[in-house]
Design goal:
- By secondary structure, the protein is mostly helical.
- It has a domain of 83 residues: Winged helix-like DNA-binding domain superfamily/Winged helix DNA-binding domain (Arc Repressor Mutant, subunit A, Orthogonal Bundle), CATH 1.10.10.10.
- 58% of the residues lie in helices and 5% in strands.
- Strands 1-2 form a two-stranded antiparallel ribbon.
- α1 packs across α4.
- It is globular.
Length: 160
């Protein structure tokens, strides 16, 4: 499984917005995000547009304008961020697009591969639904411990 560059950079841009708001309460402009992340302003503009459409950021007009979070970081789920930027790892219409040489997949009724992808997507969704943007704003070691705890709780629920 791979995250797309759009999802990776979009999440990083959103973290820039969250960090600025957390530190100063101010908005952050596209050129500042661009410099901080080493991306072109056009690319950041595209990513911020997707985040705005996903109701994750809002624009602030005026001389001190830019972007702020649309709601507190503790309320923004990473699942929602990735959904706004690209969507799930696997969805049910995947097999419609990738049926192989057959016009219709011969394994559509009893497909162990489809079952595997669905199970992986379920676990990924459950984990991402438990992680907020606020969680990602801590230091690496603190975050690693926090995520390990959430993963342990998830596994206890998934495998009774």
């Amino acid at each position: 499984m791979k995250l797309s560059a759009q999802e990776e950079y979009g999440l990083r841009c959103l973290l820039q917005v969250a960090q600025r708001e957390s530190e100063t309460g101010a908005s952050i402009a596209i050129p500042e995000i661009s410099r901080a992340e080493g991306l072109s302003p056009a690319h950041v503009g595209k990513l911020v547009r997707l985040l705005r459409i996903g109701n994750l950021v809002k624009s602030v007009r005026g001389q001190a304008g830019g972007y702020k979070l649309a709601r507190p970081a503790r309320e923004i789920l990473i699942a929602d961020v990735l959904d706004a930027l690209g969507g799930p790892f696997f969805n049910d219409d995947f097999c419609d697009e990738h049926t192989g040489h057959e016009a219709c997949c011969t394994h559509s009724v009893n497909c162990s591969i489809r079952t595997l992808w669905n199970a992986i997507q379920f676990v990924v969704d459950q984990m991402l639904d438990r992680i907020t943007l606020q969680d990602l704003m801590g230091d690496g070691q603190q975050l690693e411990t926090h995520l390990a705890h959430k993963a342990d709780k998830l596994l206890q629920v998934a495998m009774p």
